[in-house]
Every structure is written in structure tokens, then in C-alpha cells.
Amino acid sequence: MPSFRVSLAVGLLRPGVPAASILPAAKAAGADLTTVESSDVSVVGGAARITVRFTAEDTPTARTIADHVCATTGALASISDLALTRRYGGRWLPV
After folding, report:
1. Model pTM?
2. Which terminal residue of the chain, N or C, has fewer Cβ atoms less than 10 Å from its own Cβ?
3. Which pLDDT belongs to residue 5?
4. All domains of the chain, ordered by start, with CATH?
């Protein structure tokens, strides 16, 4: 089954939302619909960025999963710079 990643920048948190809850919520949202292979938080260009890697049968299904992860995360914090990529061999390419 193909591997995909959804990546997004996380900005201001909604009132009362602890920063430590963002990545677990994004990972859980992915796990609602598929197998989550990994999740990570990093700082890119001075902004927090979360990445959730997951499996999906095809690109339309991956988009549905990515949308769910983004909607869940967007309810907790402002998000931007969304990207969905698919693994081809050793490379991650935009879909």
C-alpha cells in the first residue's frame, strides 16, 4: 500500500489549547481513517511544522485523510502551507 505524508505549518493556538496536544491530535485524526506510520514536529523557517505519514490505497483516499488531519488540527490552531506527498521509491513527490 502506498505511503503518503501530510505536512502543515502550525501558527497561533486556539484559546485553552496546549501546544503539546497538537501533534497527538493530528496523529489520532489520521488513525481514525488509516494506519499512521509516523508523526513528527519540526521547526522550518522559524515556524512549527507537523508531518503525519500514513498509508492509503490511492491518491483520492489520501486527500480525504489529509483533509481530516487538517480539519482536526485547524480546530486547535491556525494552519497554513499544507502539502500532501506520496513516496515513490526513495523520493517524496507532491500529489
Report:
1. 0.96
2. N
3. 98
4. 3-89 (3.30.70.1710)
